[in-house]
From TrEMBL:
Organism the protein comes from: Hyalella azteca (Amphipod)
Lineage of origin: Eukaryota, Metazoa, Ecdysozoa, Arthropoda, Crustacea
SEA domain segment(s): 1-130
SUPFAM superfamilies (UniProt xref): SEA domain
InterPro entries for this protein: SEA_dom, SEA_dom_sf
Gene behind this protein: LOC125179225
Designated name of the protein: Uncharacterized protein LOC125179225
Length: 130
């Protein structure tokens, strides 16, 4: 199994609330389920679908302006993507790049599969192996 950790900043369509810091709150569970379902939909409809095992939201945070440090509207989403390396299609050689490109294509699409009511900041999107 191969895991990738990601971070996505939602600029429009969702905002951080204090209850999202606590993984035991109904607000956290509802928001995590929403974003997990969105990530599931993206990867299950991608070239990585045969290898896709799970998407998991691991946390939320406020949106912070990187230059001023001030809070602004938005929602930071930490997540994990798990793939079965043995099932990655043979024509995909750079798996990490494919995982990243799949989500970026969704975020910039004029007809997104799942991120239909949100606008994400593609420039701050990160994905790392591990």
């Amino acid at each position: 199994h191969e895991r990738y950790r990601g971070y996505l900043m939602i600029r429009e369509g969702d905002n951080f609330v204090r209850d999202l810091h606590d993984h035991s709150t109904p607000a956290y569970h509802a928001k995590a389920a929403k974003y997990q379902a969105m990530l599931d939909a993206v990867y299950m409809r991608s070239l990585l679908a045969p290898a896709f095992e799970a998407a998991e939201v691991t946390g939320f945070g406020p949106s912070v302006d990187p230059t001023t440090g001030e809070l602004r509207p938005g929602l930071g989403v930490d997540f994990r993507i798990t793939l079965d390396r043995r099932r990655v299609p043979g024509h995909i050689s750079a798996v990490e790049r494919a995982v990243q490109a799949t989500l970026v294509q969704e975020l910039i699409s004029v007809a997104p599969v799942a991120f239909t009511h949100t606008v994400a900041d593609v420039d701050t999107f990160t994905l790392t192996s591990g």
